[in-house]
Write a structure and sequence with these properties.
4-stranded antiparallel β-sheet, 28 strands, 367 residues
């Protein structure tokens, strides 16, 4: 008998085999429960999280939640022990299974939260967490990109690295030296790739073997390696922002196992740091200010025309592509002092919606 479609007649037939109204009531409750949906794990199980840096030194960084299904917006969904804001310069969030990792750059720590409720669970703290940036989780270890210290009396980075943290006890077990300005992290199945940007001053991607937590090599690309994605063929793409004002940004395709550079494409613009990919992983999405571009993973030259112009955007501070709908999200920092906005466009450039975020929205994360 199909319990999902059980009728009252079916119930009465079944009831003949039982005696007593109590047993019959239990049976009815059981049959009704067959139609009920499983309980959600938490309020933030799906949707999008906007990471807002806040004002530098102001300790007012926040996370904004957007419910894609209903359009509902909730501000400041995670707060530190102080209870007011998440912390000073909220840099990024990474979700892995039932846990999330909130990187607080200015406070030099990583908050571990429940992925579905954003409830605080634990904190990763270490003297080696000197301006942390991003997290990638592989097994029971977290890999954290760290800018490291500035030179005395200035703001030049002099010693960047990737920290390896044992998540069973949240202790640092290895420091892997990289080129300066380590930023985005991406696990390609065999190796972990760490882009070294350094405000355009570095030009390499560090290749790390997570089985032994060793640096394999640095792949030399072009100025300012930043965002990276894996395409439909499992190939790694890295965007390089180029030299300031030179319009010489580039895209590189790298084999994730042999580490060979298979393709390089001159973009003829200085692109922003984020690199997105369409849901079928066949087209890359990148931006240069309010200009949004799309390029096929089989292309060998950059597009001459933009996909669309995000005319509402004042200062494009982050971009993301919804892995389900393919919609393109642009986080607008406006003046970096007041609440920013997020604009959502279809992949054809049509406005879908917009909403207010926190101060200096710097990352869009889809769940």
């Amino acid at each position: 008998m199909n319990l999902q479609k059980t009728t009252s007649h079916d119930i009465s037939v079944i009831a003949r085999f039982f005696s007593g109204s109590f047993v019959l009531s239990l049976l009815i409750l059981f049959l009704q429960s067959c139609d009920e949906e499983p309980n959600p794990k938490g309020k933030y199980e799906s949707g999008a999280i906007i990471v807002n840096e806040g004002g530098f030194g102001s300790a007012n960084g926040t996370l904004t939640y957007f419910d894609v299904a209903t359009g509902g917006v909730e501000q400041n969904i995670f707060r530190n022990e102080g209870g007011a804001f998440a912390g000073d310069v909220v840099q990024s969030v990474t979700f892995s299974g039932d846990r999330g990792y909130v990187v607080i750059n200015g406070d030099n720590k990583v908050e571990i939260v429940n992925s579905h409720t954003l409830e605080s669970l634990e904190t990763i703290e270490s003297s080696d967490l000197d301006k942390p940036r991003y997290v990638e989780v592989i097994g029971d270890k977290a890999y954290i990109s760290v800018w490291g210290p500035y030179e005395d009396g200035g703001y030049a980075l002099i010693n960047s690295y990737v920290l390896v943290v044992d998540l069973t006890n949240n202790t640092v077990i290895k420091k892997i030296e990289t080129d300066e300005g380590t930023e985005n992290l991406l696990f390609g199945g065999t190796y972990l790739f760490a882009s070294n940007h350094n405000f355009g001053g570095s030009n390499s991607v560090a290749v790390i073997d997570p089985t032994g937590n060793t640096l394999v090599k640095h792949i030399e690309l072009a100025s300012g390696p930043a965002g990276s994605v894996l395409d439909a063929n499992g190939k790694l793409w890295v965007i390089c922002t180029g030299d300031f004002g030179a319009s010489n940004g580039q895209l590189f395709r790298i084999h994730p196992s042999t580490l060979a550079i298979e393709e390089s494409i001159d973009l003829n613009v200085n692109p922003d740091m984020d690199l997105g990919i369409t849901p079928d992983k066949s087209n890359l999405i990148y931006s240069a200010g309010s200009s949004i571009y799309s390029i096929s993973i089989s292309a060998t030259v950059a597009p001459t025309d933009e996909l669309f112009e995000a005319t509402d955007v004042v200062y494009n501070y982050a971009m993301g592509v919804d892995p389900d709908s393919g919609n393109i999200w642009i986080a607008d920092a406006l003046n970096f002092a007041t609440e920013g906005k997020v604009y959502v466009y279809s992949n054809a450039g049509d406005p879908v919606t917009s909403f207010t975020a926190g101060i200096s929205p710097t990352q869009v994360v889809f769940k």
